[in-house]
């Protein structure tokens, strides 16, 4: 497996686990970390054997504590724009990874930490996790698409309250407002994430990837256009062996064994 400076990547049972490892800085997102993260995401996205992706933070204190304030403190406006565009681009790549993705939030997820968690498909949080967009208390606003993803996940009013006030919320409140899908004891976090990943990986990897494409693209369309797109993607399911194997197993009362053979190039991934 390729080695990185700030990340560890493992692959087991078709599950790729990405761990950000900068624990002394609470996994803060410096320019160097975000730049390497882009490479990591591109590498993992290209892994045919990686059917599900889990992302978590090293250590027991932080998932990602936020941006690197010491670095941002000296930025001028042009550097601020460049840093924001870098983070926004990388998180967009996370959101559009072909594989289904799970953020296992193990501690502080503030600022860029909340923003990076929101880029993943599903968020499972430790009961000790803390979320928030504290940027206004620092004289800035969220810069990694927090003003865009948070309202889409929790509603405009709730997002404005959280961003305007710079407040932090605990995992149970994050669950209540729909920011995370599940809260578990800290010692169970990775087991729960892996169990969900294994459940997803037991399904057709191509069907799951196509479902992700249909959801992500469809939400950017009006309802009818989304329906038309879904029909197109539904048809693509019949271009690979996963559909044949899944339906054969159902008809013959057998257990399906999917090989995850990649879809034809150029089709939605």
UniProtKB/TrEMBL annotation:
It is an enzyme of class 4 (lyase). Gene3D superfamilies: 2-enoyl-CoA Hydratase, Chain A, domain 1, Lyase 2-enoyl-coa Hydratase, Chain A, domain 2. It catalyses: a short-chain (3S)-3-hydroxyacyl-CoA = a short-chain (2E)-enoyl-CoA + H2O. Pathway: Lipid metabolism; butanoate metabolism. Its EC number is 4.2.1.150. It holds the Pfam family ECH_1. One of its GO terms (biological process) is fatty acid beta-oxidation. Keywords: Lyase. Belongs to the enoyl-CoA hydratase/isomerase family. Homotetramer. This is short-chain-enoyl-CoA hydratase. It comes from Candidatus Intestinimonas merdavium. The lineage of its organism: Bacteria, Bacillati, Bacillota, Clostridia, Eubacteriales.
